[in-house]
């Protein structure tokens, strides 16, 4: 896991200027107050609906090295207009380049100056929030570390917005379905202070894949001024569904089907069914004691709750 502040600055600015992806309104206001009136024009190519194609040179995060905001700005200042035009030409040859990029092609030098200046100004409104998020970023690093050690990284990847991971393939469902094989490439997860519908990824770099995703628990940074904090089982619920997430939480100690049914407020047969599905996934174990069957979380179930149960 590698926090990269420039990703937050870029994605949160697009949200604030019109590409709504669920960012808290206080953050959007902070960005709009920090950027000049021409910012919307500078970010126009990034505000179009659908999947956004951004040239690599405009997102100066290309390796597994920790990149400070100051270093990112230096890299953006060093981007040559010719390099931007070259990347846009490659994109146009492999896909339809949206008309919003035409002004960039007409005067790339002017547009680069406006784009970089907007990111710098936006950061003045975001830097304080990023600093407050230091504790959450540290906690997320521990969560990802536990997922790697316990073999649950596949679950973490599948919990990202509109993403699914299986058999080495990472698929994005919205707005245009795509699939990418991670193979032996280094995976870099970069949490961002953005809305819960934001995800950014780059699969074009040799040997490296990076994915930017919403930092879990960002609602806690709002001090009651915006959206409420994320519920503790949000990610687990997104993965398993509300009933089975509740079952997994309840089975921190052994329960009979009758006891579990009382927790779920359902019939014992429904509790048995959900336990069976979780057992098939290796998340629950069941043992018979006389006429009763008791269920409890397996080691993998414990690890999953530890990884996803506390955002």
From TrEMBL:
UniProt name for this protein: Helix-turn-helix domain-containing protein
Coiled coil regions in record: none
Q: List the signal peptide residues.
A: none
Q: Which domain of life is it from?
A: Bacteria
Q: Which SUPFAM superfamilies match?
A: Winged helix' DNA-binding domain
Q: Name one Pfam family in it.
A: HTH_20
| Gene3D superfamilies membership | Winged helix-like DNA-binding domain superfamily/Winged helix DNA-binding domain
